[in-house]
Every structure is written in C-alpha cells, then in structure tokens.
Amino acid sequence: MLKTQIANYFTEVVTASSWLLNEKPDPESMIYLRDKYHITSGLVIGDRKIDVEAGEAAGLDAYLLINVSDIETSNRHVRKRKNDRRNQKSTGTGL
Question: Predicted confidence band at 35 (pLDDT cuts at 50, 70, 90)?
C-alpha cells in the first residue's frame, strides 16, 4: 500500500499479524471488516488467490492484483478516460 500511495483510502487494515484466529482463505478478516463497517457491497483487492477466495467467501467482490503495474496501468487508463470525456464535453461531442 505504501508503494502505490493508496493507504489514505483505507480506514482499517487487517494483516496476518492482526488478532484474528484464522488465516486466509478463511473469510474471518473480511467478515470482521464487513460487519464492523456495515458494508453491504465491497471489493477485495488481493495479490494472492487466497485473498480472492476469502473475499468471495465473505460475500464481497474480489480482484486479483497480479503486480503493481496493474494499478499503474489502470490509473493511466482512468486518467485518459477522464481527459477524453472532458475534451468531448468541451467540443460538444458525447460518448
């Protein structure tokens, strides 16, 4: 999270060294966060298959992040789309 500068977007982070009893793929950590923050719809982003399994077992959507360049590529794509939309609005064209 430090590498990608996304730590500010998280209220709480649960790791393997947290107080939880069970390790992933047990969904205990996901259920804990889901219930504590009354999350009805959420996305789990993990770098291992067991992260995705735990997220899905907790009833959340899940995304497997293969490497940090996935985030960088995604961010570039999102910025480009936003810029494209701005340019289209300023020229009077739509999507």
Answer: very high
**pLDDT tens digit string along 42-54?**
998 888 899 999 9
Q: Cα–Cα distance between 21 and 91 in angstroms, integer? A: 57
How many residues are present in the chain?
A: 95
User: In the beta sheet, which residues pair with residue 46?
Assistant: 64
Burial of 30 (0-12, 13-18, 19+ CB in 10 A): buried
d(CA 46, CA 64): 5
- What are 63's two structure tokens? 């995304």
What would the two tokens of residue 9 be? 């977007």
Q: Which amino acid is at 42?
A: G
Is the pTM higher than 0.85?
no
